[in-house]
Amino acid sequence: MSLALWLSRRPVLPVLAVVALLALPLSGDDGGAGPADAASALVVGYCVLRLLHERRRPLSRTAAVVLGLPVAGTALAAMGAVSPGAGFAGLGRYLQVFVLVPAAVVLLLRDRRDVRLLVWALIGLALWEGAVGVKQYVTATGASYQGEDIRAVGTFGAQDVMGMATVVSFGLICAVGVALGGGTAPTPSSASAPTPARERVIAGVCALALLLPLALSFSRGAWIATTLTLTVQLALSGPRRALKVGAVALAAGVVLVGGLGVGTAMLQERLGSITQVADAPDQSVTDRYTMWAAATGMWREHPLTGVGLKGFPEYRDGHASLALSSGSDTAGAGAGFRRQPLLSPHNMYLLVLGEQGLTGLLCLAGSWLALLVLGLRGLWATRTTRAAGGREYGVIGCGLLVWLLVDFMYADIGGPSTVLTAVALGLVAWWALVGGAEPVRSARPMTGAFPAVPVARGAGVL
Known about the structure:
Largest sheet: 2 strands, antiparallel
Radius of gyration: 22 Å
Order of helices and strands: HHHHHHEEHHHHHHHEEHHH
Helix content: 55-70%
Strand order of the largest sheet: 1-2
Distance between the termini: 28 Å
Low-confidence stretches: 183-192, 439-462
Number of helices: 16
Structural class: mainly alpha
Mean pLDDT: 80
Number of strands: 4
């Protein structure tokens, strides 16, 4: 790709920088915000400056309502926070992850070539983090798991054990989407790009390679969410292709487990524990059930507005039973032993319900549901135009949203990897509000800063 082409794509480069910064190892063991979070703020600021320079209405009414819906519930909960500082911090985090960064990504992705760059950036990040995670498992330098430092966590450290699993899952979903889709037809400006068939093969190889680090993450929630998401993606691609890909995945599983010996006793035990969460749960599952009950109790006392942003730790002990432990132990991956307090219920829906009440949950979940409906509608509209390219981004966008909706049953936002959730939501929103707003057309160079795809009915970026 020539330098002139890279310079012409300058709006998307800050978004790619956010993804690249997540590959850097974090200093310290606090597990807080990292360089990527600071870069995401710069992305939002850069987008605002471009809007002021262009002097145009950036989003349609539909896009503004869908992306801005979480603001109402979050702002109301911020006013009821335990302190002004907690309310401001919580409001900033929610707006960053669910409103500002996704909207900036939508505006900075001008066409499907930009989206293609972002998709492959996510795959590349997943391959890097996965490689680091596999090395941690092999050399016993990962996070502590059952007394051994073998848990693959990538560069995120022991304080964010879900970080690598999230990154690898996103990359796997993107790779599978490209492998299942029709590929982007080469254009004069991208003549050096791989052919669609070659790109699908490369993406398929990447998807198979990412299965190993996902398994070594020992994350049951990520396993469940990824399995369900890949099933949905295969169903969206058609029964014939679903059977072919399913056969390849089964063969790869046999090779990994049988031939390479990936199915260690710890891995098999972890996999089997998924079916034991009700009969014989371990302490982590017991803590999670207890915190779920505490969040539900907070909602019952404050059904409409909740206890306020960042209020779960303050009200937790008053609603939790004696079965709750004092915290979880973390160690390894370059960090010392630390007792990490339980500051959230590890369920996004219950966290929002407890802190923001029914109002906040309806606003946030309503935004996600609208994106899912619009994304599926756009995917259905492109079913007869697959040869034009672009359908794979619908499979990816819907897949990423399905993964988040499922994973949020076992996890919530927090840690350095959270900013990647915001970028993924931006990719989801781009497809739902722009890319899938009308049947796919051949990509062509655009002269404006923000208009990327001809959009009918005012459904996306103007």
